[in-house]
Amino acid sequence: xxxxxxxxxxxxxxxxxxxxxxxxxxxxxxxxxxxxxxxxxxxxxxxxxxxxxxxxxxxxxxxxxxxxxxxxxxxx
Length: 76
Hints:
The chain is mainly alpha-helical. Helices cover 64% and strands 0% of the residues. It contains two helices and no strands. Helix 1 (7-22) runs antiparallel to helix 2 (28-60).
């Protein structure tokens, strides 16, 4: 079973991928694997950011102009 990463964990892993790709010792095959991993991490981060954006929008947008916190269902 795969555990979900936090945004911070995914970003940390992505930073590691970038460092490894910038290194001169990485061969083509390994670079492609790292790139694929990086793309997946970017998508994870984008999903987390979209979830956060939705929560913020739900928090601040009220019809009468007031700010009210409502329950927000996030599918994990």
